[in-house]
Amino acid sequence: MMPTPTAIVTGGASGIGAATAQELAARGWRVAILDRNGPGATAVAAGLAASAAGAHLAIEVDVADEPALVGAFATAFAGLGRLDALVTSAGVANMTPFMELDAATFRRVYDDNVVGTFLCLREAARCMPRGGRICTVASVAGIRGGGLSGTAAYAASKGAVLALTKNAARALADRGIAVNTVAPGATLTPMIEDAWKNEAHRKRVEAMSAMNRTGAPEEIARAIAFLVSPEASYLTGTTLVADGGLVMY
After folding, report:
1. By CB count within 10 A, which of 35, 169, 212, 245 is most buried?
2. How many CB atoms lie within 10 A of CB 110?
3. Number of Cβ within a 10 Å radius of residue 196
4. Looking at residue 194, what is its pLDDT?
5. Which class for 216: exposed (0-12), middle (13-18), buried (19 or more C-beta within 10 A)?
């Protein structure tokens, strides 16, 4: 009998992370949700489909806090018993205009989106067996340099996630660990809810894609679930763009 697959999902208290935790649990995975929003993580974990191998876990942690993150991964690994997959969906948006952006804000966004992703990649690699799979979460903003809602700090940080993913794919290949990324387009999560209240802005962004609509977190979650599944066994260092046909323009 095959063991129940296990995953850590960061940023799992809401948005794409929560949808991914739900998708994996529905497919029979046991999930540990890491998020700085502890009550939110606990609520999502409690609502997941039951795992045959035990309860899902919720751990409160800031992924950019290295000592805390190391401890959180140790706790998650001890609770899960093994780690087959990691999804790094924790991150922040920033919409500060270019000429109004200060270094402190830029560093904060970079710490959350890039340093946090790196720390999670490193800690997962310490305890993953051969065959482990990692999916980072970037953005089309990192491919096209922003121009949607997120501006300089956000676009630069997501571009860094794309490069970091490729480097990790090379570095971890000898360990038998595959590392890919999903680059969502505009997706209706708490990250863009305020911006989407401006109907003219929403319509402008949606009109840039062939499908002319905003994505749903569940659509991105299904792409992530594929990248951490055995069906993606020959993929590593790959970016799966899930944007309704935006960046092809």
Report:
1. 35
2. 18
3. 17
4. 86
5. middle
Residue 225 belongs to what H/E stretch?
Answer: helix 217-227
CB 135 within 8 A of CB 87: yes
Q: Which of 188, 182, 187, 176 is nearest to 161 (CA)?
A: 182
**How far is residue 34's CA from residue 9's CA, in Å, rounded to a whole number?**
6
Provide DSSP, 110-127: HIIIIIHHHHHHHHHHHH
Report residue 219 as tokens: 């659509």
Q: How many other C-beta atoms are found inside a 10 Å radius of the C-beta of residue 206? A: 18
- Catalytically active residues, by annotation: 154
Amino acid occupying residue 120: C
Distance separating alpha carbons of residues 40 and 12, to the nearest angstrom: 8
Q: Which pair of structure tokens corresponds to residue 20? A: 């991914």
d(CA 65, CA 49) in angstroms, rounded, equals 30
Backbone angle region of 197, left / alpha / beta, with phi > 0 → left and psi within -120 to 50 → alpha? alpha
Measure the CA–CA gap between 193 and 191, rounded to whole angstroms. Answer: 6
Report the distance separating Cα 164 and Cα 175, nearest Å. 17
| Distance separating alpha carbons of residues 185 and 217, to the nearest angstrom | 11
Predicted model pTM = 0.95
Kindly list the structural domains of the chain, giving each domain's residue range(s) and its CATH number in brackets, ordered by start.
6-241 (3.40.50.720)
| C-alpha–C-alpha distance, residues 117 and 138, integer Å | 10
